[in-house]
Design a protein that fits this description.
mainly alpha; Arc Repressor Mutant, subunit A; 3 helices; 0% strand; extended; Homeodomain-like_sf; Transposase; WH-like_DNA-bd_sf
Length: 85
């Protein structure tokens, strides 16, 4: 079972958009500085959290290699006696 996010989906989307737009406008000297500043301004506990959201958005948008987050599923098959034969 997946743990519910501490942050609403709208906040995550807004934060990612703000980082993307600020990088496109060269508002900050580095991506790290943009992520750090925006995370603090929006009350996101750690810049690493926002960095992961940005990376996931880049993967889902086809800008980075990787699997689409929405399509990734994990199939777990228990091992041992008494389970599937």
């Amino acid at each position: 079972m997946v743990r519910p996010s501490k942050y609403p989906r709208e906040l995550r989307g807004r934060a990612v958009r703000m980082v993307t737009e600020s990088l496109a406008n060269d508002d900050y000297p580095s991506e790290f500085e943009a992520i750090r500043t925006i995370a603090v301004n929006l009350g996101i506990g750690s810049p690493e959290t926002l960095r992961k959201w940005v990376r996931r958005a880049e993967i889902d948008g086809g800008q980075r290699p990787g699997g689409l987050h929405e399509l990734v599923t994990v199939s777990v098959r228990p091992r041992g006696p008494g389970y599937w034969s």
